[in-house]
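Protocol step 4 of 5: obtain the predicted structure for the target chain.
Materials: sequence only (see below). No template structures provided, no constraints applied. The aim of this step is simply to have a reference model before the mutagenesis design in step 5. Sequence pasted as it appears in the construct record:
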Amino acid sequence: MTRIIAGRARSVRLSVPSVGTRPTSERVREALFSTLDAWDAISGAHVLDLYAGSGALGLEAASRGASSVVLVERNAKAAGLCRTNAAAVQRALGPRPTPIDVSTRSVRAHLTTATPPVDLVLVDPPYDVSEQDIADDLAAIARLLSAGGVIVVERSSRSPEPTWPTGIEAIRKRAYGETTLWFAESPAPESDEAERSETSRASD
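Step 4 output (structure tokens):
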């Protein structure tokens, strides 16, 4: 069973495609969102969930206070489940739910026409998506990402580090068995950096 872990839509059950997707385990999602919460990277953020599958990552962000969420999933059946899951989450969020859109397009097509700013991008491609395709996705994401914005890439632990484009800095790697999370950011202006606490994203 896949469910929302925390926030205003906590415990809402999510439908998952029977084939063609690789849902993120609850353990990995909990670790991912605990990190993002500690960085204050979710509340008020405009979020993109790429290769969304069931939409579990983007919908978790909606539950935890994101300002808007876009789920990008080209598979029509999976996109239908994203809409069903989004409706369930929005009902749980009450009278002022987070806007949640579902884009039934390829990731590349969506990124080509998307407009900035985006504050948090969650990238969970199928393992058969090539490293070059991911690098191209990240280059497209870079033009959309706000200053201080965060990218998270979920990959097999056997895969190499993603190729980060100019202007994007890797800040953390965490492995959970067969899954590795890579975190990167578009650095904030120096004035904002000076205001950060001693427990920075790179070192915490």
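Step 4 remarks: The longest helix spans residues 76-93. DSSP finds six helices and nine strands in the chain.
Proceed to step 5.
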